[in-house]
Amino acid sequence: MKNSSLVLMMVSIFLLAFSSGSKLQSVKSHIAFYSHTPLEDIKADNYTAISTFDTESGAVIFSVPMQGFMFEKALMQKHFNSANFLDTKAFPKAKFKGNVVQIEKVDLKKDGVYPVTVAGELTLKEVTKPVKTMGELKVKAGQLSVSAKFPITLADYGIVFEKGKPASNIAKTVEVEVHASYDALKD
Amino acid sequence: MRKRRLVFISLLFVLIGAVATAFYLFFQPHRDIKNAEAEYVLSSEALVAEYLTDKAAADLKYLDEEGESAIVELTGRFLSAHANGPSTVIVLEGVAGKSDVHAHLSTGETVDIAALEGKQLRLKGVLISGPEFDADLELYTPLILRESSIIN
After folding, report:
1. Cβ contacts of A26 on chain B, cutoff 8 Å
2. Do A81 and B141 count as a contact with CB atoms less than 8 A apart?
3. What is the ipTM of this complex?
4. What is the DSSP pairing of strand A173-184 with strand A28-36?
5. Could you tell me which residues come within 8 angstroms of residue B72 by beta carbon, excluding any fewer than 6 positions away?
6. Model's pTM, two decimal places?
7. Which domains are seen in chain A, by residue range?
8. Which residue in chain B is spatially nearest to A30 when comparing CA positions?
9. Which residues of chain B are under the pLDDT cut of 70?
């Protein structure tokens, strides 16, 4: 019994060491969303997302604390967090799980800006929908950063306003911009 | 004639009141976190441990439905600091080997990082995200505060 526990522990340590070898972490991120209607332009910024990027498989993950979004107007921020909109008390985080398509064609050892396709799934309020967009990988002095931009149709995630405010002030489709800088790349 | 004038003036007051209320609601200021009193005062380790024990209960206790979540005052050991966007992030020790506290300082809040090395810090901010083990990220996420300021 003792031997099997020891073997299990060693295998776990080996797997952890092996799997985290190519995985970079980011706590320096910026996620912004823009909404445009004839009545009002709204922008919110969030600098609190955590992300990982696997340089071998191209897997990229973002965990986004929803109450990290800051708006210029306090009322808009309250609407955004409320049960009618993102319900951030019940659903405190959004998540993106995806992959950089054909990561093996990108030489991350060489400085440069590489246009890539990112495909994955975005989960908001426990509703998961596919997302595919063009993005950019940037390598500069051993530092990797990713950027991407994509639209989100709010109704796809069950966020629907029938009438009145804030329905008239928020676009049905909002533009999301993502940026993250990762730990230094390993040789 | 006099009665009609009275009704007109009353309606005018109601209208002015309604417009003023709508105007205030639309342009109401954000909470002044720096000058507000903390609702909870505890150590960074105790708060992280509370979350790691029961995240659902902690979310219920600290998060607010409209995003005006609890203002917490934490004391903990300074670990590191980094710049992120328009502000500096101070990392306080939480539960060793698991989660720490990432306190995003308010924009414009300046700090002498070299002077913080090895110190016990007391800071205040809005709790927006509790720590947990995230199986997709394969790591413990930090406890995150925004609009933070260092007390001493």
Report:
1. none
2. no
3. 0.87
4. antiparallel
5. B38, B39, B40, B41, B42, B47, B62, B124, B125, B126, B127, B145
6. 0.87
7. 23-184 (2.40.128.110)
8. B85
9. none
